[in-house]
Amino acid sequence: MSLLGRLFGKHAHKQTPVAEVRQLIDRFTTATHAGVDAEDIGRYPHKQRMVMAFHFGAIEYLAQQHQLDETETLGVFVMFLDKYFNLPVTETGSISELLGGFESSADMQKYREAGLDVFRRWHEQNERRAPLQLGEMLQNV
Fold first, then answer.
1. Closest CA to 137 of 43, 40, 61
2. Whose C-alpha in 51, 78, 115, 127 is 20 to 30 A from the C-alpha of 99?
3. The whole model's pTM is what?
4. Residue 36: which residues within 8 A CB-CB, separation 6 or more?
């Protein structure tokens, strides 16, 4: 490559791990929404928390894969909540309470673990229908 090409040529911009995780979670969330009734989730706070726990499991999986620290992982989760549940960043103080509920409730833990497993199957094993499992799980609630 010539000197001018190196100076003025286009350089590939590598995404930060957090940006990459956010992008993957957005794609995954789009895939999971294909199988859920958004109005139903909007009416029932318990179902909302189940959906949040499911996606937090996927975020945890990605955080481990991309070696994100706890602050970065929580940041991705806050951005997820803000984008998909319109939770203002000023209300993020309740996130520790929400996460505590994911760990203390057997139901929430089930959704969290399912989100991790479904994401892994979708992302690594290319099971394109795996995200529909969320909708199937919510029908039984």
1. 40
2. 127
3. 0.85
4. 51, 134, 135, 138
